[in-house]
Amino acid sequence: MPAIVQWKRLVALSFVLMLLSSAVLVLVSTGAAHAAKSERERKIAHALKIARNQKGDPYQYGADGPNRFDCSGLTQFAFGKAGLSLPRTSDDQSRYVRRLHDRGNIRAGDFMFFADGGDVYHMGIFTGRWEDHRRIILHASRSGTPVKVDPMWTHDWYAGTLRLR
Q1: The pLDDT of residue 131
Q2: Given 34, 133, 139, 155, which residue is catalytic?
């Protein structure tokens, strides 16, 4: 076989190997990104479960568990136990998470923030929707009221997430 034909085959084979290795790299990096996303989503689901287990625990201003909570103490406790750290206050947590500008993108385990004049004064964890499509929040709301779930009572809130952080 002439040397030129062998050389062309070698070049063609090298090109095919380069394409295959590029394809493998893309698949591996996509799989790693998917695995990281799945791991984060698993942690968020676990945090929601932990927070749900706190239902009935008493509210106490400034408390962050394990048996008493304020709103941001509940989220910091639950997400921390699931392996996702959050700052301590609701205002700091609102700046830490990624804001969802389209509230229709909110998912169970995302956050609902309530602000007045720019500062966040309350927050909770979105748990889903009721039959009438009202959003449901899990939160530690005020003194004398335990950690509980409530249907959303206002349209004056915004959403944040750790899914996309």
Answers
A1: 81
A2: 139
Contact status, residue 111 vs residue 156, Cβ threshold 8 Å? no
Nearest to 55 by CA among 69, 44, 41: 69
Residue pLDDT, tens place only, 45-102? 999 999 999 999 999 999 999 999 999 999 999 999 999 999 999 999 999 999 999 9
Cβ density class 60-95: b for 16+ within 10 Å, e for less: eeebbbeebbbbbbbbbbbbebbebebeebbbebbe
| CA–CA dist 144, 148 (Å, integer) | 12
Active site residue 101: no
Q: For the chain, which residues make up each domain, given as ranges?
A: 33-161
Q: What fold characterizes domain 33-161?
A: endopeptidase fold (from Nostoc punctiforme) (3.90.1720)
Say what the pTM is. Answer: 0.78
Of 34, 46, 101, 122, the active-site residue reads 122
Of residues 142 and 15, more confidently modeled: 142
Q: Which listed residue (34, 46, 71, 155) is catalytic?
A: 71
To the query of whether residue 133 is one of the catalytic residues in this protein, the response is no
